[in-house]
Amino acid sequence: MSDCITCENADCLIKKNIKNPSIEKYLDEKHNIKCKKSQQFIMEGAPAHGLFFVRKGQVKVVKTGIYGREQIVRFAHDGEIIGHRGFGSGKNYPIGALAIKETHLCNFTNDIMMKMLHDIPDLTFDLMLFYSEELNRSETKVRKFAQMTVREKVIDSFLYINRKFGQSEDGFFNIQLPRKDFADFAGTTEEQVIRIISSLKKEKLLVSKGKKLGILNVDLLKKEISEHNYFLDS
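The chain above was modelled as a monomer; its predicted structure follows.
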């Protein structure tokens, strides 16, 4: 229980409701999980066994697409929820999830979460808002994929990573992803991503060093896809 009280993730739904006296008895039921880099903790199609909250780390959420190709649905970091698409259905996870680097997770089983939601109305309301925002993001992504060019999709993925993880003092994203991950998130090929990165570097909009990538001019990149108004996805 003490780690939830001392947790610094203010946006975590559990942390937001930590002062509610009804929550104390459930915190001892939480499972703490430590994942190594590249370790998968949710298998697509496996029976759902609750919600995961990222205490510290970076996660990618994936789904198998056409011809068995992996599609990255989203990325997650400290305080965010994983596994909510399988929660409440009593069935299976429709997605998979794995740690990008060493990651610490908090897991509440379906039964414990159900009891918490019945017992703590504020937590139920917060989760309802979360699902509403997730639905909005999903609908936005569908429209985006239908209307954007490949270059715009790749630029949008860079802006998403920048909003989600930010950049360090040396000017690179605070997450290192292979070019394939950018391709799987943008819905294109690794070759296309490499070509677009090369073009953006020549245009002085992007900088790279090995796997590291950084945006040199966020405003100009935003301007290129501004007509789509897709900056809500975070």
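The chain has a mean pLDDT of 90.
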